[in-house]
């Protein structure tokens, strides 16, 4: 199972505060542990939302709004993608994420959809997948 | 805490901690079999206590302390109590968290010793596989049994016998000396590759794939790469497995039937795994390992991964890579794949000529892919009646139900 581990933003991360050397070291050590256990697929830290933008959708309309955004606790400061056997294992890993500043913060764990989830969720998508596959196969057999 | 929650939490901790736990204990008691039993004892203790007391803050250290306490209990009952206790006591203080003091390098060394012991040549391949999944993969006997479609008792017996064999042969808990190391590393890589292949192309049963087993193998390969970062072939194996695993979703059709490479919807390939695979391949090559058998196979897989549509596949390069592979790791199966690549690069006549040279190869006598490949080439040459016979023959040889159905369908369409 693949999980996205979402590090929520704090006032500090939104202010663009650089992590301390201590924090960088502890994070690096933790990342190394994830890599050595073979569970880490990817992981990145994100710039503050002031450097980002949002696109709002309404029917055909698209509205672009530049950051920063105000709802700090809902924003994302970074993420990991990990591959583990269960939500419990993901939780067990996340409990080990260092919090050297001791500040209040939170990390959210969300399971990544696999195709099976989608296929079960929607017949329409299943059909679309079949179409895509048929197209692909038709193309392959011509080649 | 609800008992089932606690049980799942214990299992999660076990998955993360068991290899280090067993490795650390094995260093102390110099016996991986005993270490594994002690670790299991600690697991049982956790299952008893955590539901009531909650999961401890440092579960790994808790398990280590529990295991060491059991070690003392058990050793006390043995004749050589004194000698073994001295070994245990040397780096153990029972009243505080003993694992906290272990240095990173030390843990790596222990894990590496565990890898080489679990894959020791004194053991049968089956035993190596079972021990590797159990001791390094953190899989339960039941999970291993399900993965390989054998009764749990069989796996349990295999593990017991393997541990006895190791003890009886006096296999030391150590990384082999340099002169032996390459050969031993090759068998370690072979065991992981075998686990992957069992998952990727299930040799028997109703499933065409057992993705969980593939995931375990990829994880083990990544762990090994972390332990031996300077070994190019380890990265070669990681690259090969990541790229092959990237196709998992595309290899199965809506009704669970196999979808072969040329027919796969490449949009369903996992680009993250492909990227990781290509990075691992680059690592292998930068360490001077481009010519190793796993790196070469990874390079072939990379050729497919880089082609957005099948027609973009660089078959000439693949044919060259197979030729190189046939020099470092010659086998009739490599020859067969080489013939396929040549056929794709230079036309089906040439491919068929090469395949026909393999018809008398005893190692390929019962191999379903030989008639399957021949059938494929014959179809391309418009020789449909002959092709049908070949697909039917291939269907009769495979032990995998899904694959048999695919082959019979192909025969019927000739």
UniProtKB/TrEMBL annotation, chain A:
Species for this entry: Saccharothrix saharensis
Residue ranges constituting the YCII-related domain according to the UniProt record: 1-112
InterPro entries assigned: Dimeric_a/b-barrel, YCII
Residues annotated as signal peptide: none
Similarity comment: Belongs to the YciI family.
Transmembrane portions of the chain: none
UniProt protein name: YCII-related domain-containing protein
UniProtKB/TrEMBL annotation, chain B:
GO terms of biological process kind: DNA-templated transcription initiation
Domain of life: Bacteria
Keywords tagged on the record: Sigma factor, Transcription, Transcription regulation
Domain DUF6596 as annotated: residue spans: 184-284
SUPFAM superfamilies xrefs: Sigma2 domain of RNA polymerase sigma factors, Sigma3 and sigma4 domains of RNA polymerase sigma factors
KW Ribosomal protein (keyword) present: no
RNA polymerase sigma-70 region domain span: 21-79
Signal peptide: none
Matching InterPro entries: DUF6596, RNA_pol_sigma-70_dom, RNA_pol_sigma70_r2, RNA_pol_sigma70_r4_t2, RNA_pol_sigma_r2, RNA_pol_sigma_r3/r4-like, WH-like_DNA-bd_sf
GO MF terms held by the record: DNA binding; sigma factor activity
Domain called RNA polymerase sigma factor 70 region 4 type: residue spans: 116-166
Similarity annotation: Belongs to the sigma-70 factor family. ECF subfamily.
The protein's name in its UniProt record: RNA polymerase ECF family sigma subunit
Protein source organism: Saccharothrix saharensis
